[in-house]
Amino acid sequence: MKANQLLKNLVLKELETAVSIYISKLNLNLPLSDFKIRIEYSRDEKFGDYSTPFALENKNVFKLNPKEIAEGLLAEIKNDTLFEFVTFSPPGFINFRIRSYFLFQYTNQVMSPVVSFAKTEITESILLEFVSANPTGPMNIVSARSAAYGDALGNLLSSLGHSVKREFYVNDYGNQVYLLGVAVLLRIFESKGETITFQEEESNESIFSLIEKRILPKESYRGEYIKDIASELLSDSSLSKKVGDWIQNQNWEDCVQFLAKYAVNYNLSRQKEDLQLFGVAFDQFYSERSLHDAGEVEKVPSLLRKEDVTTIDGKLHFLSTNYGDDKDRVIRREDGRPTYLMADIAYHFDKYKRGFTKLIDIWGPDHYGYIARLKGAVESFGKSKDSFLVLIAQQVNLIENKEKVKMSKRLGIFQTMRDLLAYLGKNGKDVGRYFFLMRSSDAPLDFDLDLAKDESDKNPVFYIQYAHARICSIFRELQISINEWKLLTNIKANMFESEERLRLLFWVARFQEEVYDTATNLEPHRLTNYLQSLSKAFTKFYSHKDNRIKDKQGDERDQLLLLILYTKLALSSGLELLGISAPEKMSKEEV
Known about the structure:
Blueprint: H1 7-25, E1 40-41, E2 50-52, H2 54-57, H3 59-62, H4 66-74, E3 83-89, E4 93-98, H5 100-111, E5 125-129, H6 141-159, E6 163-170, H7 175-191, E7 197-198, H8 207-212, E8 215-216, H9 225-234, H10 237-248, H11 252-277, E9 284-287, H12 288-293, H13 300-303, E10 309-312, E11 315-318, E12 329-332, H14 340-353, E13 358-363, H15 371-380, E14 388-392, E15 396-400, E16 403-404, H16 417-424, H17 428-437, E17 445-448, H18 449-453, H19 460-477, H20 499-509, H21 511-520, H22 525-543, H23 554-577
Parallel strand pairs: 5-6, 5-13, 6-9, 7-8, 13-14, 15-17
Antiparallel strand pairs: 1-2, 2-4, 3-4, 10-11, 11-12, 15-16
């Protein structure tokens, strides 16, 4: 299915035709591109299915009042096959009601024999990088939000026809990883009965000196999970002996490097388990260390434009102010060590080298300032700035008993992704994903734990799933197989005269364009909103006594069955795109 065949675009085409005729009659020698022409959903369904504010938004071009413009356009819109009526409402809206017969035929076309999705005209090879949580500890709640957002986004972009690969960047190189190894070493001392203390103020004392004094550096990691890593390692006799030998010989460097690598692998394996529990799969886990080992990071200065790189006070700088950054950035320190930015530039260059034409990164809320410098680097090594997009997964506030739950990663008193899934129980994956997706990702999210635990239809994800299960129960009660249902295309003129039937039919017909708009705008929360509205339309339909399908016979029964079958397909397909299950049986399905 092509995007120009979406229902909304069919209405837009009729409007554009009317505008062309209208401006020609007024002898306005202006192209359509000079006018703002758009179609939106009616804010009040009583006025119609769609509307356009064209008369309001272009009144200065015509130098006429909106009512005159609207009346002129109404005279030119004459598609009786598509429209039941086209009307004007103050202060300047033109409203369109789609004819029920057309809606039904359109729905038959796009929902059978399988649900089709509108394809974009230009498809790309997209590398979608998300989560990329530091392997220095368990994944936190923001990482969980990023996981839900990124995975749903990958599904949505694939529905448009793009080739999408999911990647997790493992930051397994640098000072924070080294400090992780130090933390594990100190906890090993503690497990053997030694007393360790915690440095409260940073000092110039060397790491090795602190180790010998059994002092955990202030900037290192203190969480209880470090004890688990130490315990796991010591349970392996060969590894325990190797570490013991290093300790005995005070070979701190080799010992810390080994423990850092071990801890990274330990944490990463558990992060992968968490992601699996959350239904998120990656095509690749890409190691930062592999870039350093291959010498790719050191190549960065030669990749950038010569005029964008210079040495200042012994440090190599990338002149990111040439690309809108607020200051230039160091990429290599005086002692020759690369900065994190230098490695990140190498990583993104490698993404393009692998053949991807579009890069999408999802970052955490503390990375806004990093966007300009990295986008500048992408331009500097010769790629279009539009080919690299950064999305932000904002902060998550866990709310319990109407109060915010405190979190602190470094001290280890934080709620992890695993904690959340365990708290939510058997429905953790579905509920967690839905709650993370029900608000725009670039806005902070208050995650209501009490509502998330509620198993009634007050819980928004259960409300949708109950609607789906009820439809399945109707087919079971009538002993009709959904999978073998014969599709019908004939419709009687009076079949959809009731408001509840018409509204449900329209919401089903909107499914393809809702998915398309959600995917092209990279906003999965739009699909959650749509599924809520579709479920609400079904509930109103289902609650009306005139729609009791088991009491109907013949063509009316069959047409209503087909209507709810298409509703089921829209609900299940929408939930699948979000990575959420669509159960066919639930405890309240018969309610």
